[in-house]
Design brief:
Distance between the termini of chain B: 31 Å
Strand content of chain A: 5-15%
Number of helices of chain A: 14
Radius of gyration of chain A: 23 Å
CATH topology of the largest domain in chain A: Alkaline Phosphatase, subunit A
Strand order of the largest sheet of chain B: 1-2
Number of domains of chain A: 3
CATH class of the largest domain in chain A: Alpha Beta
Strand content of chain B: under 5%
Number of strands of chain A: 12
Helix content of chain B: 40-55%
Distance between the termini of chain A: 27 Å
Structural class of chain A: alpha/beta
Radius of gyration of chain B: 31 Å
Oligomer: heterodimer
Largest interface: A-B, 93 and 100 residues
């Protein structure tokens, strides 16, 4: 347990309350997850993460053509005779691996991920990184479990409904910041669940109630009842006791605060994506994903104090028909990244866009033009502080036969623990001091000190 | 500052009034609501003039002194609650008199100490009333008690149970169920629904409504282009208006548990340029039917004859381009069938077919909701939608696909990460090879060939597509789904993907090699970390002689039988049912039975240092059965307080779960018996989990419709379907095979709550007619109950929806929500919109 000696403020009381709640048998927070007291406000950096649900096929996105195979371990082309991408069609990244062609095209509304990688678009340089072979030991191949582990940071614990980014926000909770984080989705994801109630927004423009609904006022010393909905949800004396009361009341308060915040600060400021971003956003095929990406960009640009924004892209469980389904998903993702690259130009130095997915897929295609659940995953990372390049996918890091390098010779074995990626995001980009890391990523120091396999060696994809 | 000072400051005067309800003259059918109402106000009545002093009224409320947190017991949590309240800013209590355990007319440190002294040091109990019996305050000098709903009426319990086993209380139900005894009868009645549900017979009025709203038939009118919405709307109507509430609650549950999804059906079946799920045999039959002159090719005239009758079929000119010589051979026909049938079908029609598959599944789950789990599991495995959704229709010996096998174990029967291993998944996938789905001509329909039509009882089966057909020629148009000539069905035999220009392989696609499941040497452990018994292994020998469909299906029978007999199957499904009906948090259930002897022995054998706690080292210690030790993930799952140690109490399973498992094992997996065990348990029939579960968006919408008895037309339902989706729930369209969360906790987030606020306002107080959801007329309610003043309205809904325990601040705020108008209907609309937006209405 990492107890800070910082000055005690309001967070102390919340924390103490939570501990007492646990003593009443109504909480189950592990001691190692008890977060430290309030930390200093980190610098104003922003993160957008996109969780690719369903296990994105890592070696189909960034293709390791350089793996020539070894013994019975096939090369990519041999393992994927039907769904494999011809090397001539892919875009070379480093003479070892290449980019899926759906991520780059010549048309005005085709994605330009390869151009971004090469730094060919403008003077910002090469700020896009591909992090191959990310995972964890004893990889779980259930979507549910592995997503849970990627999000709660504790492999093996499927019950823990508390996310790494929520812990971060909780550690640096700042009452002066009305909106520190937000999820753009129809539901909350585990990464954002936890002690601090992070709002879920399905559509920014729908964040308002009809005029005949009384939002009212929260209770005050002068008016302990308050009025309207704020009065109802602001009845602090009744927000505990019966289980779920607290969450119900807290959600109401968060929502009503948000409605007010958006009414005062966002909805009255029309948002138009940058002209050179718009065609890419508009071309995203999936309506929900398109709206969430556009709203994400809007929040990052219009809300000065926001730190973390998250959304999802689903549909990556390509057991069959991957040859037709995967390019559609890649194209949408590529369009999103290209649109974001343009739209976030003004805040580029402060922003990081990163993708994650629960695991990769079998290197050998199955008989249905698809692939099954595998091991190592792939992350995209893009932003002003990113050291562009390909990580864990070059001659030095990828031996012939590594497409089948797990003990059962079916998957790509991981080389870097996913928590190591989080660590760089938190410590180098968002600015978390090391002392908090052990509580935000439970047991992180021990993981690093006990690592004998290089799983926690820094990738350095973000400039220190 | 205490709650009292705040409330006093608000000027609440206890003017609950003397409602007309208590003065008689109302319909006899309303007796219950009146009785409950009179109960709540009886203590406050002083000649019925409604002007009694508030403090005097509070003293009349029955309570138990010492029960600070109002959970029905005086225990250490009350002392901690008091300390938390006093020193850490924790919650107060609406019954301060109960908190005043030493009766010194104040809440302070000594009250908590008094409770601890009573509990642990033989001190005096809190003064009467309590700590066990309920009673009223008799002393003139006391703190107030504004609300203590655990004494004096069955209404809270009735509210609690109705919230869980129905989609929400209604006036009609509360009229009928007035006592605990009525409640038990109602539970029994709901559980005793006889036989298979057939809406036209069992609930003709509901059927008529669904038909009238164009929900359950051919999509014409408003729903014509809203195929999925139509299906979702049917769920709303079933849930809102069916008499068999528990049946529908379970149906929705099973439909989600055995999840399939229209988007993937569409993708897998229609959009891949794949086989469209059509079997070669059926295609061949169709070819023969079209080849009217028996020439073994189809010419333009023959094609046009069929195409004329079935305009959805591609025109000859389109199809002919794909042939070599203008004469379509069988091989060309098979090869090009996708072009013939699917390529030109509109996306909307593809969705229609996918939706029809979903509806057939839903009907099956409704018929079997209380039946044997083996039937549910088998029905799901062989439903056309499931065969397509999780790729079993592509799972052939030459190209095994383990997708369905994995989810069969992980999601549908045993739960994640125990009992089975990756090897079991691969072995099980072999059992499913050759499974398929496709259409056939009814005239050629052969019950002996299309297997497993009809359930073991010989009654209707969802896959008995004699009732729900599809048309091959114009199949993607839902109008032909009910065609008499063609049908869709599960069947065995799948030669795999045909090659262009080649005749279809003659093989059945099944892997006839030996298969072994749950072998101890694979290393599977159960949910308590113990090796799976070798007695439960499934060993299917290689089959070189009897390679028939029946033999292939018997392999599955074998697996199915063992699956349902596994204790972890009983545990997994029972746990989900308890989470559905009782509490998300299984660890909150009582554990009073103690550890069964055999499990205690195992626990002791792992607990090497004998300290009563299992640590990671002890857990991972190799044993002869488990050379790699027990899996760490199981330890983490058992470790409820996440302190890294598993105590015997954590290792032990809750009473309710043990009883449910026992009911399963005794009955062989009869869901009705498992439900009976849960619903008649003392723990469920108490207020321990009163309002301790959050409604999901569907439940929220339906409970609103039921509470207000709203009339709906088709367009309202379209809007409601959209409302549920915007709140985050995508029934039939949720992309993950897990189905949507059964845990209420997952459904309360800001966007979900926002949409709830919007929805109740659209129903109760729509700002414009365009925004309305359904038709609700306050005038009916006003007249029926003589709800002529603000208090009477609030009291009515307090009893109807909130068990009579609506917090006083919320009552006061509700009164303030009326607005300034004088029109009683408009005033009620504002008030009801507000009441249904309150925190307790978000819970069940």
């Amino acid at each position: 347990m990492n107890i800070s000696t910082r000055s005690v403020n309001r967070r102390h009381f919340l924390k103490a309350g939570a501990l007492t709640f646990g003593a009443l048998g109504m909480g189950s927070m592990a001691p190692f997850l008890q977060k430290s007291l309030a930390g200093d406000l980190p610098p104003g950096k922003k993160l957008l993460f996109i969780f690719l649900r369903g296990a994105m096929d890592a070696v189909q996105a960034v293709i390791p053509y350089g793996d020539q195979g070894r013994g019975s371990a096939k090369s990519y082309a041999q393992a994927r005779p039907n769904i494999g991408i011809d090397q001539d069609d892919a875009h070379s990244l480093n003479n070892f691996c290449s980019l899926n062609p759906a991520l780059q095209g010549d048309g005005e509304t085709d994605p330009k991920v390869h151009d971004i990688f090469n730094g060919d678009i403008d003077a910002r340089g090469a700020n896009l990184a591909f992090l191959h072979r990310i995972g964890y030991q004893n990889q779980n191949r259930s979507h549910f479990s592995s997503q849970q582990f990627w999000e709660n940071g504790v492999p093996g614990n499927v019950r823990l409904e508390e996310g790494i980014f929520n812990r971060y926000v909780t550690s640096y909770l700042d009452e002066e910041r009305p909106l520190q984080a937000a999820t753009l989705s129809g539901n909350q994801m585990v990464l954002m669940k936890g002690e601090t109630l992070i709002p879920v927004i399905s559509d920014i423009n729908s964040l308002q109630l009809a005029g005949n609904v009384q939002l009212g006022d929260f209770p005050t010393a002068d008016n302990p009842l308050g009025t309207g909905l704020k009065g109802a949800y602001g009845q602090a004396g009744y927000n505990q006791g019966i289980k779920y009361n607290k969450k119900t009341y807290d959600t109401g308060v968060a929502l009503l605060n948000n409605l007010q915040f958006f009414q005062d600060n966002v909805l009255n400021r029309p948002y138009f994506p940058a002209a050179n971003a718009r065609p890419y956003f508009d071309a995203i095929g999936n309506n929900g994903f398109r709206n969430n990406i556009r709203d994400s960009a809007r929040l990052l640009k219009q809300v000065d104090d926001i730190q973390i924004v998250g959304c999802n892209q689903g549909g990556y469980d390509t057991h069959g028909g991957e040859d037709t389904r995967f390019p559609v998903l890649m194209r949408d993702l590529g369009l999103a990244l290209t649109g974001l690259y343009h739209d976030l130009a003004d805040i580029w130095d402060d922003v990081l866009v990163v993708t994650m997915s629960e695991f990769g897929r079998t290197s050998q295609e199955n008989g249905n033009r698809g692939t099954d659940h595998g091991e190592a995953s792939l992350c995209f990372a893009m932003g002003g502080a990113v050291n562009g390049g390909v990580y864990n996918c070059n001659r030095a890091s990828w031996a012939n036969g590594d497409l089948f390098s797990t003990s059962n010779s079916r998957y790509v074995a991981h080389k870097t623990d996913y928590r190591n990626v989080y660590n760089e995001i938190l410590s180098r980009h968002l600015g978390d001091p090391d002392e908090q890391m052990g509580s935000i990523i439970p047991g992180y120091e021990n993981l690093v000190s006990r690592d004998r396999n290089g799983y926690f060696d820094p990738l350095n994809f973000i400039n220190a | 500052m205490t709650d009292r000072s705040r409330l006093d400051h608000c000027g609440w005067t206890g003017t609950r009034g003397s409602p007309p309800a208590c003065s008689g003259g109302l319909a006899a059918a309303a007796a219950l609501l009146l009785a409950a109402f009179c109960w709540q106000t009886a203590g406050a009545q002083d000649g019925g003039n409604g002007t009694e002093n508030a403090d005097q009224y509070f003293r009349q409320i029955q309570f138990r002194r010492g029960d600070f947190n109002i959970d029905g017991n005086v225990d250490v949590s009350d002392a901690l609650g008091i300390f938390n309240y006093l020193f850490l800013g924790g919650a107060g209590t609406p019954c301060e008199n109960a908190a005043d355990s030493n009766k010194d007319v104040s809440i302070d440190l000594t009250d908590g100490v008094h409770i601890l002294g009573y509990l642990f040091m033989g001190g005096a109990p809190p003064a009467s009333p309590g700590p066990v019996e309920c009673g009223v305050e008799t002393s003139a000098s006391s703190l107030p008690c504004r609300s203590y709903y655990l004494c004096g009426s069955d209404l809270p319990l009735i509210t609690h149970v109705l919230n869980r086993i129905t989609f929400g209380a209604t006036e009609e139900l509360l009229t009928r169920i007035q006592t605990r005894s009525d409640l038990l009868e109602y539970i029994d009645e709901q559980l005793s629904f006889p036989g298979n549900y057939a809406q036209a017979v069992d609930e003709p009025e509901l059927r008529e409504l669904i038909t009238r709203l164009e929900i359950g038939s051919v999509p014409e009118g408003r729903f014509r282009n809203q195929i999925i919405e139509r299906l979702k709307a049917m769920l709303i109507l079933d849930a809102a208006y069916s008499r068999w509430q528990l049946l529908h609650k379970l149906t929705v549950f099973w439909n989600n548990h055995f999840h399939t999804e229209v988007g993937t059906l569409q993708q897998n079946f229609f959009s891949r340029g794949g086989r469209g799920g059509t079997s070669n045999r059926a295609t061949e039959e169709l070819f023969i039917a079209m080849d009217s002159d028996g020439s073994e090719f189809i010419d333009e005239a023959e094609w046009n004859t069929v195409q004329q009758a079935h305009p959805g079929l591609a025109p000859w000119g389109v199809f002919n381009r794909m042939t070599a010589d203008g004469q379509v051979t069988l091989e060309e026909f098979i090869d090009q069938r996708n072009i013939a049938w699917w390529k030109y079908a509109r996306v909307q029609n593809q969705r229609a077919v996918s939706a029809a598959m979903e509806q057939r599944e839903y009907d099956y789950f409704r018929q079997n909701a209380f039946g044997n789990f083996a039937d549910l599991l088998e029905g799901s495995a062989k439903s056309v939608a499931q065969v397509i959704y999780l790729n079993n229709y592509e799972n052939v010996v030459s190209a095994p696909n383990e997708n369905y096998a994995r989810e069969y174990l992980e999601l549908f029967s045993l739960g994640v990460d125990h009992v089975y291993t990756q090897r079991d998944i691969e072995e099980l996938a072999k059992v499913f090879t050759g499974w398929n789905a496709g259409w056939q001509l009814r005239s050629l329909y052969d019950a002996d060939d299309v297997l497993f039509i009809g359930n073991p009882g010989g009654q209707d089966f969802p896959l008995n597509t004699r009732e729900n057909g599809g048309d091959v020629f114009n199949f993607p148009d839902l109008r032909y789904w009910s065609d008499e000539d063609y049908t869709w069905a599960f069947h065995f035999g799948n030669p795999g993907r045909p090659r262009r220009g080649q005749p279809p392989p003659s093989e059945d696609g099944h892997d006839w090699a030996r298969k072994d499941l749950f072998l101890p040497l694979y290393g599977g452990v159960d949910s308590l970390g113990n090796p799976v018994s070798p007695l439960l292994s499934v060993q299917i020998p290689a089959n070189d002689t009897d390679q028939t469909a029946a033999a292939a299906m018997s392999e599955f029978d074998n697996v199915l039988e063992v699956t349902v007999s596994l204790r972890d199957c009983a545990k997994f499904i029972s746990t989900k049912l308890i989470q559905l009906l009782v509490t998300d948090d299984i660890t909150a259930l009582s554990k009073t039975y103690g550890m069964p002897e055999d499990l205690q022995d195992i626990f002791d054998s792992v607990d090497l240092d004998g300290n009563g706690r299992l640590d990671a080292g002890e857990w991972s210690e190799p044993t002869p059965d488990l050379p790699n030790g027990r899996p760490p993930a199981i330890l983490a799952t058992l470790d409820a307080d996440a302190d890294g140690l598993v105590t015997s109490l954590e290792y032990q399973e809750p009473d309710m779960l043990l009883d449910a498992i026992a009911a399963w094992q005794t009955s062989g997996g009869e869901i009705r018996q498992v439900l009976r065990s849960i619903l008649f348990s003392d723990e469920f029939l108490s207020l321990k989990f009163y309002r301790a579960k959050i409604k999901d968006p569907f439940e929220s919408v339906v409970s609103t419709l039921r509470a207000l008895d709203v009339d709906v037309v088709s367009q309202d339902l379209v809007g409601m379907v959209g409302d549920i989706e915007t709140a985050g729930m995508e029934q039939f369209e949720f992309s993950d095979p897990t189905g949507e969360s059964e845990l209420g906790f997952d459904w309360l987030h800001t966007v979900g709550l926002l949409e709830r606020f919007k929805f109740v306002n659209r129903v109760a107080n729509p700002p414009t007619p365009r925004d309305s959801r359904g038709s609700w007329n306050p005038r009916n309610l006003i007249n029926r109950w003589r709800l002529t003043n603000d208090d009477s309205v609030i009291n009515y809904f307090n009893l109807l929806l909130f068990g009579g325990d609506l917090l006083l601040p919320h009552q006061t705020l509700s009164k303030a929500s009326y607005g300034n108008g004088n029109n009683p209907e408009n005033r009620m609309r504002y008030a009801v919109s507000y009441l249904l937006s309150l925190p307790p209405f978000q819970k069940q």
